[in-house]
Amino acid sequence: MSWERRTGLLDDALAMLREAERMHQQFFTLMLDRRGPRWEPPVDMVETARGLTLSVALPGVAPDAVDVRTDGVTITVVAVRSLPAGPGETIHRLEIPYGRFERRISLPNGRFELVSRDLIDGCLFLKFRRLG
Predict the structure, then answer these.
(1) Global model pTM greater than 0.85
(2) Inter-CA distances, 115 with 11, 52, 62, 110, Å
(3) Could you list the residue range(s) of the whole structural domain that residue 67 is in?
(4) Which of 11, 19, 25, 79 is the S-S candidate for 66 at Cβ 3.0 to 4.6 Å?
């Protein structure tokens, strides 16, 4: 194997590690802004010839606590995941992000209409129909 090929593989591996670290930080780090603590749930997006499906990981978030807005080009998912402890309870470990979140996702080229939303087993499934 040539030196250039090995260097390219190493560069690719390092790029993947950097992306994994970015995703880890995005999911597990609380970010502060003027509206208070904020975190971003991970999102999967799958496009088909007829539309688009987004899956947003929201374990522990009640279905009626989720606000979904779209203009056909961008989608915004907003909610609050409450702490699992109440007054007088002691938290010994807190690894799951809590508090308010807002996730904005740009949709692929084209126009889309949100046709269904379901929160099943901790995942929000958003289905879009392609317009035009």
Answers:
(1) no
(2) 42, 10, 20, 16
(3) 41-131
(4) 79
Count CA atoms within 13 Å of residue 107 on its CB side. Answer: 26
Q: Do residues 125 and 68 touch, judged by C-beta distance below 8 A? A: no
Residue 81 lies in a domain: yes
Q: For residue 114, how many C-alpha atoms fall within 13 Å in the half-sphere facing its CB?
A: 18
pLDDT digits (tens, 9 = 90+) for 52-96: 999 999 988 988 889 999 887 889 999 988 888 888 888 888 888
Structural domain contains residue 58: yes
- Give dist(CA 105, CA 47) in Å, integer: 14
> Has residue 14 been placed in a domain?
no
